Amino acid sequence: MALTVTAATAANEVKTRNRSSAIQQSALQEITDQEEEPDMRKFDPWPVFFKREWNRTWPFLVGFAITGAIITKISLGLTEEDAKNSKFVQRHKK
Fold this sequence. Notes:
Elements: H1 2-35, H2 46-77, H3 80-85, H4 87-92
Protein backbone atom coordinates (compact mmCIF):
# COMPACT_ATOMS: atom_id res chain seq x y z
CA MET A 1 0.00 0.00 0.00
CA ALA A 2 2.81 2.44 0.86
CA LEU A 3 4.35 1.73 -2.52
CA THR A 4 1.11 2.55 -4.33
CA VAL A 5 0.71 5.82 -2.45
CA THR A 6 4.30 6.79 -3.26
CA ALA A 7 3.80 6.03 -6.95
CA ALA A 8 0.58 8.08 -6.99
CA THR A 9 2.30 10.96 -5.19
CA ALA A 10 5.18 10.85 -7.67
CA ALA A 11 2.72 10.89 -10.58
CA ASN A 12 0.95 13.93 -9.09
CA GLU A 13 4.27 15.74 -8.67
CA VAL A 14 5.18 15.07 -12.30
CA LYS A 15 1.80 16.43 -13.44
CA THR A 16 2.26 19.52 -11.25
CA ARG A 17 5.73 20.13 -12.67
CA ASN A 18 4.47 19.73 -16.22
CA ARG A 19 1.66 22.22 -15.55
CA SER A 20 4.01 24.77 -14.00
CA SER A 21 6.52 24.46 -16.85
CA ALA A 22 3.67 24.88 -19.37
CA ILE A 23 2.54 28.01 -17.52
CA GLN A 24 6.09 29.35 -17.50
CA GLN A 25 6.49 28.66 -21.21
CA SER A 26 3.23 30.42 -22.04
CA ALA A 27 4.26 33.40 -19.90
CA LEU A 28 7.63 33.58 -21.67
CA GLN A 29 5.88 33.38 -25.04
CA GLU A 30 3.63 36.31 -24.11
CA ILE A 31 6.66 38.37 -23.03
CA THR A 32 8.56 37.66 -26.25
CA ASP A 33 5.46 38.47 -28.30
CA GLN A 34 5.23 41.86 -26.59
CA GLU A 35 8.94 42.61 -27.18
CA GLU A 36 8.76 42.03 -30.94
CA GLU A 37 8.61 45.15 -33.07
CA PRO A 38 5.33 45.98 -34.71
CA ASP A 39 4.98 45.69 -38.46
CA MET A 40 5.32 49.44 -38.94
CA ARG A 41 8.87 50.82 -38.70
CA LYS A 42 9.56 53.47 -36.11
CA PHE A 43 10.05 56.99 -37.49
CA ASP A 44 13.64 58.19 -37.31
CA PRO A 45 13.72 62.03 -37.17
CA TRP A 46 17.51 62.47 -37.41
CA PRO A 47 17.91 62.28 -41.22
CA VAL A 48 15.11 64.82 -41.66
CA PHE A 49 16.65 67.10 -39.02
CA PHE A 50 20.15 67.02 -40.53
CA LYS A 51 18.86 67.59 -44.06
CA ARG A 52 16.84 70.63 -42.97
CA GLU A 53 19.49 72.11 -40.66
CA TRP A 54 22.35 71.65 -43.13
CA ASN A 55 21.05 74.60 -45.16
CA ARG A 56 21.28 76.83 -42.10
CA THR A 57 24.53 75.63 -40.57
CA TRP A 58 26.91 74.96 -43.45
CA PRO A 59 28.34 78.51 -43.50
CA PHE A 60 29.28 78.27 -39.83
CA LEU A 61 30.85 74.84 -40.25
CA VAL A 62 32.88 75.96 -43.27
CA GLY A 63 33.97 79.11 -41.39
CA PHE A 64 35.11 77.07 -38.38
CA ALA A 65 37.04 74.70 -40.64
CA ILE A 66 38.82 77.51 -42.50
CA THR A 67 39.62 79.41 -39.29
CA GLY A 68 40.94 76.23 -37.65
CA ALA A 69 43.12 75.45 -40.66
CA ILE A 70 44.60 78.97 -40.68
CA ILE A 71 45.32 78.96 -36.94
CA THR A 72 46.88 75.50 -37.15
CA LYS A 73 49.09 76.48 -40.10
CA ILE A 74 50.29 79.68 -38.40
CA SER A 75 50.92 78.04 -35.02
CA LEU A 76 52.84 75.13 -36.55
CA GLY A 77 54.99 77.61 -38.46
CA LEU A 78 56.23 79.31 -35.28
CA THR A 79 59.70 78.36 -34.03
CA GLU A 80 61.60 78.79 -30.76
CA GLU A 81 63.48 81.70 -32.32
CA ASP A 82 60.17 83.46 -33.02
CA ALA A 83 59.23 82.98 -29.36
CA LYS A 84 62.55 84.45 -28.17
CA ASN A 85 62.09 87.53 -30.36
CA SER A 86 58.43 88.06 -29.38
CA LYS A 87 57.72 90.84 -26.87
CA PHE A 88 54.39 89.18 -25.98
CA VAL A 89 56.03 85.85 -25.08
CA GLN A 90 58.74 87.56 -23.06
CA ARG A 91 56.19 89.56 -21.03
CA HIS A 92 54.08 86.49 -20.24
CA LYS A 93 56.88 84.01 -19.68
CA LYS A 94 57.19 83.10 -16.01
